[in-house]
Specification:
Low-confidence stretches: 5-31, 136-145, 261-272
Largest sheet: 14 strands, mixed
Mean pLDDT: 76
Radius of gyration: 32 Å
Oligomer: single chain
Number of domains: 3
Helix content: 40-55%
């Protein structure tokens, strides 16, 4: 064989090898830590953590637990933190090989991101996950001896101010009893910075226990559901502590799920969910009104209020300045709940013994976002929601959603792997067709032999490229089975 032919064949082999490499070599990109795994790690870190000093209240307890957990996690070191991540990753069906691959590029900044997320958790989630207390249990029943109830030194049953509602309170721990409400508030919510457009909400209120309820699409917005799933939500019931149940249509029937994390509009609930402490907030606010900034007029107030209102700016809960606008005169709504409504509604003034109507509130909500709530209407209107048709899942809505998202994520990954495998087969078939045509035009036996070698190499490289994909697909199938098993528990 002459030198030119050898060089030509060598170049052809080299070029074809490069083509095969570019065609069949698959690079797997690094995966990030799934949100569901981050949350599970935060739960592990919180377990058993207790306040360092005797807390003043639940808010103080949660804040102390957050800082304790933050310091504890930060001092662990990167390698120990990686080891901690292994447990939830395995629970979600990741194989040892996949876990090793995910953690390979996991660094200090990734760890700080997860640890920093603890500080952004709602106080109720912190109390629940640490085991310090269960915020789903309402332990502030009006039946007890309340300093601001029948045991108050100024208590006078003949005054409307001290008259309790005759309506029946709700027990959200018992789904066999219907949820009942006797008033409805229509409010307009505006959020600073254009985060969301101005929206109107109709809120059902129970004047006996202060619980609230929301219907349909509005309820879906409150618990942060994606738009495509919003039509499945029928009702959301929330206690004065800001915890409650979502009632919705799921694949296997009607389900009642716990709500974790504070819904958007409920950040306006400045109270503690404790009758006496909420009443103290009101009393202290009224006592400080003379020293507050007085505001005679505000923009955007509904016309039917005219000039019959007064606004003041001061601290309501010792965190941020809040503007409250009171309608002139007293409200004749009977209730012992210190603040009946969400952000706006009936405000009990324990100094002057008046039930006042708050018609506008402007302040700072969750994550420092400014909000404004305006009362459009407040009227008596009975509403009953039959909760007995729904089966309690024992899960919270967001955990259920995370499980479904994890399942969808795995199925999407499986689809992508199968697509890559199909693409490999298609490219191999095209390459083999080209080689077949090339062999047909070979002038010599040696040329045909060289092409035959190229065919073998193409099949071998395609097979080598397919093996990691097949292994990845097997891992994903196993992971999907585990996720479904966890979801059924």
């Amino acid at each position: 064989m002459n030198v030119c032919k050898i060089i030509m064949i060598t170049k052809m082999k080299l070029l074809f090898s490069i083509i095969l490499f570019l065609t069949f070599n698959i690079h797997l990109k690094a995966q990030s830590i799934p949100e569901s795994v981050e949350i599970d790690v935060q739960k592990i870190l919180l377990q058993g953590v207790r306040p360092r000093t005797a807390p003043k209240d639940a808010l103080d307890a949660a804040e102390q637990i957050k800082w304790q957990t933050n310091q504890r996690a930060t001092s662990m070191g990167l390698e120990s933190f990686k080891a901690l991540l292994g447990t939830p990753l395995r629970n979600y069906g990741y194989s040892s090989r996949s876990i090793e691959y995910i953690l390979e590029d996991f660094g200090d900044n990734d760890m700080k991101g997860i640890v920093g997320g603890i500080m952004r958790l709602s106080n109720d989630d912190v109390l629940l996950w640490s085991g310090y207390s269960n915020p789903f249990v309402d332990n502030y029943s009006n039946a007890g001896p309340l300093d601001y109830g029948i045991h108050h030194p100024n208590f006078d049953r003949s005054k409307i101010f001290w008259t309790d509602s005759e309506f029946e309170g709700n027990d959200m721990r018992n789904l066999n009893t219907p949820l009942k409400y006797d008033y409805i508030l229509s409010v307009r919510v505006d959020v600073d910075g254009g985060i969301m457009p101005s929206q109107r909400f109709d809120i059902h209120v129970n004047s006996k226990d202060g619980s609230v309820g929301f219907e349909g699409q509005q309820a879906a917005q409150l618990i942060g559901m994606p738009n495509e799933a919003a039509s499945k939500v029928h009702f959301v019931a929330v206690s004065r502590k800001g915890k409650g149940m979502s009632f919705m249509q799921e694949e296997d029937g009607l389900a009642a799920n716990l709500i974790d994390g504070k819904p958007m509009i409920l950040t306006a609930l400045d109270g503690k969910g404790n009758h006496d402490k909420d009443a103290e907030l009101n009393e202290r606010f009224v006592q400080n009104i003379p020293s507050m900034r007085q505001i005679s007029r505000v923009r955007g107030m509904p016309g039917h209020y005219g000039t019959q209102y007064k606004c003041v700016e001061g601290r309501y809960n010792d965190r941020h300045n809040t503007i409250l606008c009171f309608k002139q005169g007293s409200s004749n709504i009977k209730t012992l709940i210190p603040f009946l409504g969400i952000g706006v509604g009936v405000f009990k003034d324990y100094v002057n013994e008046e039930n006042k109507l708050v018609i506008r509130r402007k302040g700072i909500g969750l994550y420092g976002v400014g909000f404004e709530i305006t009362l459009l209407d407040f009227k008596q209107q009975n509403f009953t929601f039959i909760s007995s048709r729904y089966t309690s899942t024992g899960n919270n809505y967001h955990d259920t959603q995370r499980s479904r998202q994890a399942e969808k994520m795995v199925k999407d990954q499986m689809a992508r792997v199968r697509a890559r495998m199909a693409a490999l087969e298609s490219r191999l078939e095209r390459s083999l067709e080209q080689l077949k045509e090339q062999r047909r035009t070979c002038p010599t036996t040696e040329c045909k032999s060289n092409v035959d070698d190229m065919v073998k190499r193409a099949r071998r490289q395609a097979r080598d490229a397919r093996r990691p994909l097949e292994s990845q697909l097997d891992d994903l199938k196993q992971r999907l089975r585990r996720i479904k098993k966890v979801g059924e528990q």
